[in-house]
Every structure is written in structure tokens, then in C-alpha cells.
Amino acid sequence: MPQRRSKRVAAGNNKGGVGKTGWVECIAAALAEEGLKVLVVDVDPQANLSRRMGRPYRKESPLVTTAEVIKSGEVGVAADAIVPCGWGGIYSQRIDIIPSRFDLENRISEAAVIGSRGRLARALQGVDDEYDFTLFDCQPSLGHLTQLALAAADYAVALVEPEYDGVEGAVRFRDFVESEINRAEMGNPGLVFAAAIPSMVDGRLAGHAHHLSTLPDIFGEDRVWDPIPRRSVVKDAADEAIPLAELGSRANEMREVFRVAARRMIKELV
Q1: Which part of the chain is the AAA domain (predicted)?
Q2: pLDDT category, 252, cuts 50, 70, 90?
Q3: Alpha-carbon span 101 to 63, nearest angstrom
Q4: What's the pTM?
């Protein structure tokens, strides 16, 4: 069996609406543009990432989703759920996805079942060996679904909207990941909290500037990555379920932001 080269990264925050899903879809695109192969796993019952990447749930042609993968938990079963993302061009060749749908909520009730937190890790065993990155879009919670992703991940990153609640949610996520007890109970003692990534940053707001200035003291200067500005073009791409590249020159600034972010990931997450 080949050794897994994929670096698994779980993106989270204990607060919703911080730009987490937008970061996952855009960083996946940027990694693909760098020539890397990426597997995206939607671990949120809202399934926003699945829709944005062209794989929404359709009753007339249902796909195998994260819910079925986790329900089984058998070694390697995640292979049955992998499909190319719904975007065209190089993205369909380099980005695959395990989509989600609303019934993923049903897995939460299984949290007390022995071994349940390891189901996603087992399901992915041997499946993502040939990908460069596996990205998990976590639910905005520290509950069972997020723990399933963290149990399978090598690294965790927090998306941090520079407002009070966004920072607090990121701190709770960081503290959960860094707890030796939590990592041991998830069966993943080697999990590393890698970065706090400021997101949806509005340079016009004094409050954002203030909270940005506090992040190095909270998370450590080397773990605060370059900020992701708030731009309407990201929302436009998400609404239309297309990559930023399809929006032409008006997306150039944000494509460059994510290109820089992707190169940092490639360099630092080894």
C-alpha cells in the first residue's frame, strides 16, 4: 500500500458565518491551480460547500454522501462517495469531493457509540493516499461532526472573523484541538493546531483593525497567517457555484490572495 502523501486539514470555528466554507472552496481552487490534487470533504449538514462546488443534493440523481460514509465507518468506504467537483476545466481534474446533505445531522445521535469518532478516519484509510491535500469543512460547532473531522485530520486551522465573537469562537476551537485529553479521546494525539486565518476582513472598520492587532498575542505570531479580505466577488462566485477564475479580472485580487495562502500551506504543512 502506498504511503499517504495527503495532508489533511480541518477548517473550523465554534461560531458560524466567519468565512470558513468560502476559504475551503477558494483554497481548494488555488491549490488546484498550483498543480496539486485535492479532496474536499463536506462535514457540515448545511452542505453549502457541496452546492458551491457544483455537487448539490438532487433527489432525482442522489449521490453517496458524508452521512453514508460515516454511518458505515468501514475501512476505505469513503472511496464510494468521491466524485469530481462540479466545476469545469482543471478543477474537475484536480478537485474531488465527498458531498454532504442535511441528513448528516442523523450521525450526531451516534456520538455515544463506542468508536464512533473514528469512523471518518477509518473510512478514509487508504482512500486519499494519492491526494496532496484533504480539506474538511467543519460544522460551526465543537460537537460530534467536527470531532469526526478532527479525528481524521493532521492539522486544524481556525478561520477568524476579526470581531469579538469570531475571535472567541476561534479560541474555543484552538483550545479544544490543543487539549491532550480531547486529542487522545479522538484517537488522534498527533493533531496540530496550525494556524489562525483572519477572514472576511474589512479594512474600513476600526474594530477589525483592533482585533487583528490582538491575534498574534492570542495565537502566536507565527500561527497568524495573512488576512483574507472581505470582497463581494467571493460571495458572487459562491452564489453562482463557480470558481473565482470564471469571474474574470474583477476576481484577480482575491485569486492572488488565495494563491499566496495556498503556497504558504504547501510550504508549512509538511
Answers
A1: 7-179
A2: very high
A3: 9
A4: 0.95
The SS3 call for residue 149 is helix
pLDDT of residue 2: 57
Kindly state whether residue 2 falls inside one of the protein's structural domains.
no
Which residues span the domain enclosing 117?
Answer: 7-268
Measured CA to CA, the distance from residue 24 to residue 10 in angstroms comes to 9
Q: What DSSP assignment string belongs to 178-244? A: H-HHHHHHTT-TT-EEEEEEE-SB-TT-HHHHHHHHHHHHHH-GGGBPPP-B--HHHHHHHHHT--G
C-alpha angle 87-133-99 in degrees, rounded to nearest 5: 45
Mean pLDDT across 70-98: 96
Q: Give the CATH number, domain containing residue 199.
A: 3.40.50.300
Residue 54 DSSP label = T
Number of domains in the chain: 1
Could you tell me the sign of the dihedral formed by the alpha carbons of 219, 221, 222, 228, in that order? positive
Does 1 map to a domain? no
- Listed residue (247, 241, 255, 246) closest to 85, CA to CA: 241
